[in-house]
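Model the whole thing, not chain by chain.
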Amino acid sequence: MKNNEATIFVFIASIIVGLLIAMNIGFEGKNNLLDAKQYDEAYNERSKLYSDLNNLQDEYDKINEKLNKYDSGYNETDQVKKQIEEEVGNNNIILGNTDVEGPGVKITLDDADVVTDATNLIHDSDIIQVLNDLRNAGAEAISVNDERIVASNYGYCGGPYINLNGIKIVRPFYINAIGNQDTLYNYLTLEKTHITSLMGRDVKVNVAKAGKIKILAYNGIFSYKYMSLIKK
Amino acid sequence: MVAFVGLLIGVILGVVWNIDIPVKFSPYISVAIFACIDSVFGAIRGSISQNFRADIFISGFFGNAALAVAMVYLGDKLGIPIYLAAVIVFGGRIFNNFAIIRRQLLDKTKSHQ
């Protein structure tokens, strides 16, 4: 009898333990327990998402306000027109359709005086990687030999010259970028950037901060053939 | 044997009901599970050595779990991992009980021969 009683209790207790285990583990590949590192990561992600949320909310408010202005200001067409013009102007600045100026950095790249092998030359890929570095550092407008760099730019090596978006440019290359001077300069002189690796290749590299850089507008045409707007 | 069947039923029930414990309580439940497993081992040992007492078992089953949870909570508040004490004690006792169960079962099978 005593043994029987024990068996029953053990049985019930095992069911409870099994239940607890199943509830805790969840058996669907998800683990509720985070270790310290995962917790840290999750926490960081949460704060990042929160700040994203705030930014989006701000943006939403701004756009909503603009929309309200449009809705309520039908009789004030002038104002709406002005605002649209302002926005078009803003978009043109971003696209590169207008001449812009501002603080930034000037980079000069040139082949080495004594060329012993291909590493002493500046290649198209070097230019592209420098541009990438600049973009990464937050450059807002970039030009190479006064040729504005826009989103559709391409570049390839044409032998003695570099073909940039159909325009042949030759050495030395003057790359100008508008952005936060200090950020750009400090980023470019970091150890991991392409500029730094260029310095180790005996080519002539010069990076200088400049208070006022003028960058001319992109004078090509933006055109597209295959894409069209998605109807909402 | 009966413990394994019970465990299986419990796990299946848990999966079927699919109740999720909030992540916050997860560490508490983990230690509570450990305490419960310890009690079950104690009960099996008691039933084998014929000195099982239901009152001791039930009070131990819930009391140990509650104490363990309280310890985890206290450790959390004080910033020292007191739950390690619970884990070590329960772990040691589980192994102890298992060793005794093993010995007695082996002795029984030997004496049957």
